[in-house]
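Budget justification aside, the reviewers requested a transparent look at the raw inputs and outputs of the sequence design task funded under Objective 1. We therefore reproduce one unedited record. The lines immediately below are the C-alpha cells for a 89-residue chain.
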C-alpha cells in the first residue's frame, strides 16, 4: 500500500468531488457513515443480546420471586419480610 499523506488525501477528495459533485458529498459521506454505524450497531446488538440472554438466564424470572438472604426461602416480589424467618428482604 502506498504511503498516503495530506496531498494524496486532497487529491482523492478532489476526485470524489468531481465524481459525485460537491452537492452530493454530504449524502455520500452520510451513506458511508450510516453503513459503518449500522455495521457497528449490529455487532454491538449481538453482544448486548448475548449479555442480556446470559443475565436473564442467571437471574431466573426477576420481579416474581425474592429469595431470602437468611434462609433461602422464596417469597413474593412485593414481600418486605421473609415468611419463614422474618428476615428483611
Ligand atoms: Zn428467610
Amino acid at each position: 500500500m502506498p504511503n498516503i499523506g495530506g496531498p494524496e488525501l486532497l487529491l482523492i477528495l478532489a476526485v470524489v468531488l468531481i465524481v459525485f459533485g460537491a452537492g452530493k458529498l454530504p449524502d455520500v459521506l452520510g451513506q458511508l457513515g450510516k453503513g459503518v454505524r449500522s455495521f457497528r450497531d449490529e455487532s454491538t446488538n449481538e453482544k448486548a443480546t448475548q449479555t442480556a440472554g446470559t443475565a436473564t438466564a442467571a437471574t431466573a424470572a426477576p420481579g416474581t420471586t425474592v429469595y431470602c438472604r437468611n434462609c433461602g426461602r422464596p417469597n413474593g416480589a412485593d414481600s418486605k419480610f421473609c415468611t419463614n424467618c422474618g428476615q428483611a428482604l
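The mean pLDDT is 79. The beta strands are 65-67, 74-76. Computational costs for records of this kind are itemized in the attached budget.
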